[in-house]
Amino acid sequence: MDVDVLVVGAGPAGSTVAEQLARRGHGVLVVEEHPRVGIPVQCAGLVSQRVLSLAGSNALVRTAVRGATVFGPSLGAVSFKAAEPRAFVIDRGALDVHLADRAARAGAEFRTSTRFDRLARTEGGRNVVQLTGPDRASLEVRARLVVGADGVSSAVARAFRLRRPVEILPAFEAEFPRAPGDAETVEVYLGRSISPGLFGWWIPDGQGGARVGVAVDADGTPARVYFERLLVHLERRFGQALVSPTAFLVSGIPVGLIPRAHGPGVLLVGDAAAQVKPLSGGGIYTGMRCAQLAASVAHEALARGDLSAGALAAYDRAWRAELGEEFRRALYLRRVFQRLNDADLDRLVAALQGSRLAATIVAFGDIDFPTHVARQLLRQSPSLVRLMPKALGAWVSPGTGQVPALEFERRK
Ligand SMILES: Cc1cc2nc3c(=O)[nH]c(=O)nc-3n(C[C@H](O)[C@H](O)[C@H](O)COP(=O)(O)OP(=O)(O)OC[C@H]3O[C@@H](n4cnc5c(N)ncnc54)[C@H](O)[C@@H]3O)c2cc1C
Description:
The chain is α/β, with parallel strands linked by helices and 412 residues long. It is built from twelve helices and 18 strands. It has three domains: 2-42 and 93-165 and 255-323, FAD/NAD(P)-binding domain, CATH 3.50.50.60; 64-87 and 167-253, 2-Layer Sandwich (D-Amino Acid Oxidase, Chain A, domain 2), CATH 3.30.9; 328-396, no CATH class.
């Protein structure tokens, strides 16, 4: 079978690339290893308005979120609430189905229960790829371009030898059909014993329940252990145990900047390219936006008949121009955050309690670009800078737009 473009993975990034290229007249085949698009769901589904705009649908929204409460390890808390919705909890499975339907309507062909196995060879400038279909039969596909949208453990990246020196944060989430808490507020739980390196979350599902989970630094302890500690914490916070969960998910979140998301005849998008916000682990917006940029570059390259690494390098330039600086800043702040102990995290929450800072967060908070508000907060609050004076002071001192080198003071 011959195609212009083989897209591996029917998540948000894969279906976005597929739709954009099919709409521009290219022959696109999307393969998805699971029998149905959108199942299983491996996500909490908290997104910004930008995702709804990229998806062109508000019908996926289960509930709107106006506020956030951040809890320190000792359960001291700071709350922010905006007058209008600042984020949305969506039906994530439905998002994947919606995007796949849109791509199929644009002309992309989908094959489910079909796995990308390996790159067999290149032949006349085409990638010859080996797939395994629903009946376990092998199938060879010849594609001018392969797009790896196959998520955190990308087999395409391995097959095309695209290095991914990223951290994979183990994550564990459960869905609770009923849960106490404010239906318009997400809760964030900080603490080295609950979620070292990132945070625990409680996200209302819009139906009276909640999605509760953790993502943590990979330290050899299963994320489930941290999740169970979070449940104990939640019991203290709500004064009652949560009802039994109805679904669990175990996955990983890739964090880092990979050296290259392209090679001759190949592009990586979404989690496969670690296009994930380093401070939150959210990757739907960034993956879909980068998928659009990938499709523009791929379209030009296909039209010119030049799928060399040199031609496809424009994709890396484009997504880094848009998101690279935010990612670099976020990775820097993440390094600072990883060094904070529980006493520091309690101090961080206490420092945020000032009304001036809360107003800044409400005014400027943006879940897709969190470092903008972080920098403003540090400029306003010396007590935040004192958490790690050299590192944070260097970043916010006047005239320094860039993050300092990723090297700073050691914790005593
Ligand atoms: C616990 C958890 C909670 C999260 N919560 C949020 C959130 O609230 N908001 C947010 O923005 N992000 C969140 N994320 C991140 C978000 O889920 C990902 O960034 C996003 O799904 C990435 O989209 P993608 O299309 O790149 O990859 P994926 O959605 O992972 O899709 C990849 C697809 O490729 C398929 N595939 C893999 N290998 C192969 C193969 N060899 N052959 C064929 N098909 C293959 C997979 O089955 C899958 O369908 C969360 C992640 C986790 C783990």
